[in-house]
Design a protein that fits this description.
Strand content: 15-25%
Number of strands: 18
Largest sheet: 8 strands, parallel, barrel
Distance between the termini: 61 Å
Structural class: alpha/beta
Shape: globular
Length: about 500
């Protein structure tokens, strides 16, 4: 289905709201702010930065992001009740480009088993919710939750009521990833043809990936008249995730002659943003992930390699540089200077302030003394882990490991604290990682429950850096830490120590 003229598609990113709801993906305020700035540089139209009424932390994150981000529209989710809507309005008030996104479930399943409400009560709640939101903000979006399993006639009634109340965007969520492209596309056609005032609002698609169809469903919605897609970086989100931002944007860009749509996304920033989100959330990108996976532009089969040597288009429908993956790989060495390093960082799509650049360059020099060859992926890892700008209070000074198959392992660790203390300790364990973690706990006085431990190779070769991500539970809350080194045991120690530092900093901030 081709269109006569190009049509703008709005990209609504919900990484910081729906994406964060994925198990293990909770983020600190600083991490959310870092991602918000990256999304703004990516040029998304709307950043749904949280659910203001969900928690004090969400409220504060929204308020800070709304105060700092200049460009993208900042949005808060809210249920159709005064408390939620007022909290959303307060949280995003500082930003001139703001949106309140109200929702209520509409399917019979949700009405009976979750809300215990009649259809009339739902219509009234939706109307009054939008009307109240409109008093705080001109830009109001409404979502009938579980729309894809809602009776069509009732869905029209609810949408009519919210358009009459002043909604400017109508989102039609496939909340549980149940629908299929033809069916979902027809739903949009039906609503646009049968809802009063449909020409005056933007229809939006919000799809989940439970059946692996979220991108296909979103594209079907666009073909049927939707002009906004709600998505997340790397497709993270509840259960199987959401529509992947990078996939939907590159599908539109790559098949522009078919869709004749356009987005304002800076596609060369897709890969750096993807890596940033993966690092912060600890959800590593599968190698075969479309657009941003390590294998997306790799060719191993002989016939493919032969074709690529003749002409790249034989087996590549996108250029790697179009999504921010550099052509070259081996780039710098121990004799490279600050300017060369900055040029490469910039070429890889990262934007660093002076403090971040200094921290990253110090780590680069350390790595250059340990590795013969520095790859782009090494630099990306350095930059992402240096961007936080947070150190201490504990710092790893020395680490020695002894292990044997018959007797286990022993770790000798030396730490410094920013109050001047120097502490050393030895601990035994079944293996090197256990002995290291026990020694760190003994030295710092924390007893932590390790719930997840992941190892990921950053680059290639015998001296490749290894990235360790750990998740621990302490005092009823999950904390996540990352560590990168050419020594995987050291990576684990750094990751565990980062968690301990997070807990320490949180305690200090509470005292203050």
């Amino acid at each position: 289905m081709q269109r006569e003229s190009n049509s703008k598609v709005f990209i609504f990113d919900t990484t910081l709201r729906d994406g964060e709801q994925a198990p293990g993906c909770s983020m600190s305020l600083r991490e959310k702010l870092k991602i918000a700035h990256a999304l703004n540089e990516l040029n998304v139209d709307v950043i749904e930065a949280g659910f203001a009424a969900a928690s004090p932390g969400d409220f504060e994150s929204l308020k800070t992001i709304a105060s700092e981000i200049d460009g993208a529209t900042i949005c808060s989710l809210a249920r159709c009740n005064p408390q939620d809507i007022e909290a959303a309005a307060q949280a995003i008030d500082a930003n001139p480009n703001k949106r309140i996104h109200v929702f209520v479930a509409t399917s019979d399943i949700h009405l009976e088993h979750k809300l215990d409400m009649t259809q009339d009560a739902v219509v009234k709640a939706a109307f009054e919710g939008v009307k109240l939101a409109k008093t705080f903000c001109d830009n109001v979006e409404f979502s009938p939750e579980d729309a894809s399993r809602t009776d069509r006639n009732f869905l029209v009634e609810v949408v009519n009521a919210t358009i009459a109340a002043g909604a400017t965007t109508i989102n039609i969520p496939d909340t549980v990833g149940y629908t299929i492209p033809f069916e979902y596309g027809n739903l949009f056609k039906y609503l646009i043809e049968n809802c009063e005032g449909s020409a005056n609002v933007i229809f939006s698609a919000h799809c989940h990936d439970d059946l692996g169809l979220s991108v296909a469903n979103s594209l079907a919605a666009l073909e049927s008249g939707a002009r906004q897609v709600e998505c997340t970086i790397n497709g993270i989100g509840e259960r199987a995730g959401n529509t992947s931002l990078e996939e939907i944007c590159m599908a539109i860009k790559t098949r522009e002659e078919y869709f004749n749509f356009d987005t304002q996304i800076e596609t060369k920033k897709l890969y750096p943003t993807s890596r940033l989100v993966a690092s912060i959330t600890g959800m590593h990108i599968p190698r075969n992930k479309a657009v941003v996976g390590e294998n997306a532009f790799s060719h191993e089969a002989g016939i493919h390699q032969h074709g690529m040597l003749q002409h790249a288009s034989t087996y590549e429908i996108m250029k790697p540089e179009d999504v921010g993956i550099a052509k070259s790989n081996l780039v710098l060495g121990k004799h490279s200077g600050r300017h060369a390093f900055l040029d490469r960082v910039t070429e890889l799509g990262f934007s660093l302030n002076t403090e971040e650049l200094n921290a990253a360059f110090v780590e680069f020099k350390k790595l250059a003394d340990r590795k013969k060859e520095i790859f782009d992926s090494d630099i990306e890892a350095i930059v992402i882990n240096s961007e936080s700008g947070i150190t201490g209070p504990w710092e790893l000074v020395d680490l020695e490991i002894s292990s044997g198959k018959s007797w286990g392992a022993s770790a000798d660790i030396k730490l410094t604290h920013n109050d001047g203390r120097i502490l050393e300790n030895s601990s035994n364990g079944i293996g090197p990682i256990e002995s290291v973690f026990k020694a760190l706990e003994d030295l710092t006085g924390y007893s932590l429950k390790l719930t997840n431990f992941e190892i990921h190779s950053v680059s290639v070769g015998e001296d490749a850096q290894g990235e360790v991500t750990v998740t621990v539970r302490y005092d009823g809350q999950d904390y996540r830490g990352h560590g990168i080194s050419t020594d995987i045991i050291e990576s684990g120690a750094l990751a565990y120590l980062e968690v301990i530092n997070r807990i320490d900093r949180k305690k200090i901030s509470r005292i203050r």
